[in-house]
Give the backbone structure.
Amino acid sequence: MSPETSNVAGYAVGLVASYLLNRNYTFNSKQSRPGEMFRFLIVFIVAYASNFAMLLFLIHSINLHAGLSQVLAGVVYVAASYLMNKYYVFKAPRVS
């Protein structure tokens, strides 16, 4: 399997698990699910696009080893995803 194909497959499988684990454990969210799920999907798309762009850049522009490129691109995904989830998807509602 190519690095690009394995990257897509891995992130596709982890999407549902990621939402449930982040909702219930990382951020302990009590918000309504429909809007939250939509925002989570948007964040996933943005974070994944950043990850995939970095993967392609590292492999094809810098000629970095595919395995190391996966790890470094994964760091981009984790950082982007965490920050957007914390401040956009699962942010605590304002108390007036």
